[in-house]
Design a protein that fits this description.
Elements (H helix, E strand, L loop, with lengths): L9 H47 L1 H5 L7 E4 L5 E5 L2 H5 L8 E6 L4 E14 L2 E9 L5 E4 L17
Antiparallel strand pairs: 1-4, 2-3, 4-5, 5-6
Length: about 160
């Protein structure tokens, strides 16, 4: 009579152990990747919330009445930010500031540094602003496109 052995062979045990280790490594790698994705999403989400709160929350609305350097909303779409040579710095406008470096659209905000009388009026507003958007290069834009009660922004210095 032949007896069937229920004892596993050494080769079967080694194969089973190797498979268990591979599954364990895969599982560990998956848990680490999942944890990193969760942490990255949390950091990105917090950054977006902080930036949005800064741009559209207290800082954005604090300057809506036109007092001082700071963040102001843009009410139009596709507003060009312009630069050029010395003529652009002295009297900004579409002619003197021939290089378009960026565009902004509502409901974005721009940081207004200074303002000056331009070479041309836009919508009856003769003032131009040196601004920085939330992304990209700084440039001049017409004050006409700023969400503000008046053409000249009180408390913003002249360029």
């Amino acid at each position: 009579m032949t007896s069937l052995s229920t004892k596993p062979t050494t080769q079967t045990t080694q194969t089973t152990t190797a498979a268990a280790k591979a599954t364990s490594r895969t599982s560990l790698a998956g848990r680490i990747a999942s944890g990193l994705r969760t942490r990255a999403a949390t950091v990105i989400g917090a950054t977006v919330l902080a930036a949005t709160g800064t741009l559209t929350g207290a800082a954005g609305t604090a300057h809506a009445d036109g007092h001082g350097v700071g963040w102001y909303g843009v009410w139009a779409s596709g507003v060009n930010l312009r630069t050029g040579g010395e003529a652009c710095q002295l009297r900004p406008g579409t002619v003197n500031c021939f290089r378009i470096v960026n565009q902004v659209s509502a409901p974005e905000a721009v940081y207004v540094y200074c303002q000056t009388y331009g070479i041309e009026s836009v919508g009856g507003n003769p003032y131009w602003l040196w601004v920085m958007p939330t992304h990209g290069e700084r440039g001049y834009m017409s004050s006409y496109y700023i969400d503000n009660a008046s053409n000249w922004i009180d408390g913003v210095p002249e360029c």
